[in-house]
């Protein structure tokens, strides 16, 4: 076995939300012998070589293929892997077509997620979803978790906080408009708000503003 095979995989987490990045980092804490995390800002070079860029889809526009293509093409990582929901079949196909080497489901337990990263580094076209009967794992952390929001509710609120309409949220997340409305209703009850302007203000006050310029918005400037 070569030295490269023995060393931990150098993985960069690509996300606009620091709380999401830190949540994933905690998931990997027990796997330091297999994964070593390196911080990555999308528009800036990292200080050392990176094996895999793990692109978290939280709060992102799934239809923005150009954003993913830029990450693939910018040379910061040998391999790019997308981290999203396991039921997004259309988005999985788009991600692989845009150059991602693999797609890993957010519902994967940490050990399976690490194994998926290792596999995606070795081969292309890898799609890893949770095994039947394993249940839903805890996908790290997300804004609004302490207030009772689920990961899906939180993502919808994040996009609303960024000024997206219901239709834009549906398109960005590959959800139906009825699903988006359902998530909004349940989220609003937990947030204690009734109007969209109240929801945006609540979001800004509870960590739903991205820590760095939002990737999709940055591409428009």
Description:
The protein has 221 residues and is of the alpha/beta class. It has two domains: 3-128, Response regulator (Rossmann fold, 3-Layer(aba) Sandwich), CATH 3.40.50; 145-205, Arc Repressor Mutant, subunit A (Orthogonal Bundle). Helices cover 43% and strands 13% of the residues. The chain contains ten helices and six strands. Strands 2-1-3-4-5-6 form a six-stranded parallel sheet, with helices on both faces. Helix 5 (110-122) links the parallel strand 5 and strand 6.
**Intertermini distance:** 47 Å
Q: What is the CATH topology classification name of the largest domain?
A: Rossmann fold
Q: What does the largest sheet look like? A: 6 strands, parallel
Strand order of the largest sheet: 2-1-3-4-5-6
**pLDDT < 50 runs, ≥5 residues:** 42-46, 216-221
- CA radius of gyration is 17 Å
- Give the beta-strand count: 6
**Secondary-structure-derived class:** alpha/beta
CATH architecture of the largest domain: 3-Layer(aba) Sandwich
Protein name: LuxR family two component transcriptional regulator
GO molecular function: DNA binding
Keywords: DNA-binding, Phosphoprotein
Organism: Terracoccus luteus
Topology at a glance:
Blueprint: H1 3-6, E1 9-14, H2 18-27, E2 35-39, E3 52-56, H3 65-73, E4 79-84, H4 89-97, E5 102-105, H5 110-122, E6 126-128, H6 151-161, H7 166-173, H8 177-191, H9 196-205, H10 215-220
Parallel strand pairs: 1-2, 1-3, 3-4, 4-5, 5-6
Helix pairs in contact: 6-8, 6-9, 7-8
